Amino acid sequence: MEKNSFIFNTNKCVACNACVAGCSIENGTDFRVNWREVNTGNKIKHPGLPVFHFSLACNHCEDAPCMKNCPALSYTRDEKTGAIIHHAEACIGCTYCTWACPYDAPKFNPTTKIVEKCNFCVDRISDGKRPACVEACPVGALDFGQLALKEEDRVTPGFVDMGIKPSIQLIPLREEHSTPKIENTDKVEIDPKKIKEWLPKAKDKVALDKEWTLVLFTIAVAGLFAWQAAHLLSFLPMQLLPFSILSVLAIALTSLHIGKKMRMWRFILNLKGSWLSREIFSFSGFLGLTGLQLITGNIWFGIAASIFGILALISVDMVYKLLQRKDNLLLHSGMVVLTGIFFFAWIGGISIILETMILLKAILYAWRKISLRAKNITYFPMLSLLRILCLFIPYLLFDLEWEQSLAILLPIVFVGEIIDRAEFYHESDVITPEKQLRMTS
């Protein structure tokens, strides 16, 4: 079946950025936010590697992850043209779509506090014209047409194909152009292992300095669930006022991560497709039902709250399934489900569960550090030692029935979990064309 598609010829692109300028002029975009970008392979121009360029914008995928994962339903598909349209008036600026898209198409605008992206020049192509970026290309590297795309149309080094059927045909670099001919026989050989060191630092979509509020929020979700479950089973008292204060703080933490706070209600509109919607819905249900439990003393509200709390923990972990971790392991010791169970066992003093969770977390943590070290990735040994001590020393003192140990040692346990969760964000990122090109260099 034919559909509107971009056509990009790697052999012709000279990285003049005329396509970027054409897009910006047509759509009146902010000079800091380019809907189309040109990424270059071999930025250091190493003579033993091919020099080529990728001009990419939104590829208007058939199974568009931005539309599928947006919690606010701010994306729709134009059935006539196949364009994925972003609706600014519905966007909450959570940036989750920027994590979901492997082509770095949705861009967060710091001025408007919302996301924006290429609209396929839907008005132009509806009138039979070509997109502005295509019209601006002076060398014919970028084109547009009705194509019946096949999988082999997207098999090109440096291009991410995740099975989401992007509307683009790629004409790959010809073999005779893959390695430029070097006439200088006295050229200095460059160690390929050092190439990555010489490259400029790539932009990180996920970084600890930007996600510290999420570190605290996810720990808060685990802690509030553990407290409520322990209270339900009569392990620990719980009062409405302190619970309410902590709940408001948790909500405040997550609101700091979104651009349009007055649109927060839109978070729950995509329960069908978005784990972020499910996370906010289940956590909100947990808070509301726990409040009713504390006000009425009705155990059924407490049971329902625990169910919603479990769903919230699962949803938090599923939100991050989009990320790529440097260790490439299936499980992480900082997963919120594990932390919630761990906190519950601590508060309830359930030794068998506590011992199991300490052992499991320690094994997962050590396994991850060994994996990072084997890949020559920074793993912060002194911080790692502190994290391990925060696991075992509190338990040893607790096991010795040290007086008032819970009130003193729980903060230490929290510090250890914060370290682990912070490392989760530090060691995670999303796929982007720029980083994919680095992998192929």
TrEMBL record:
Residues 4-34, 82-111 form the 4Fe-4S ferredoxin-type domain. Keywords: 4Fe-4S, Iron, Iron-sulfur, Membrane, Metal-binding, Transmembrane, Transmembrane helix. Gene3D superfamilies: 3.30.70.20. The chain crosses the membrane at residues 212-234, 240-259, 280-297, 335-367, 379-398. InterPro entries: 4Fe4S_Fe-S-bd (IPR017896), 4Fe4S_Fe_S_CS (IPR017900), ET_IronSulfur_Cluster-Binding (IPR050954). This is 4Fe-4S ferredoxin-type domain-containing protein. It comes from Marinifilum caeruleilacunae.
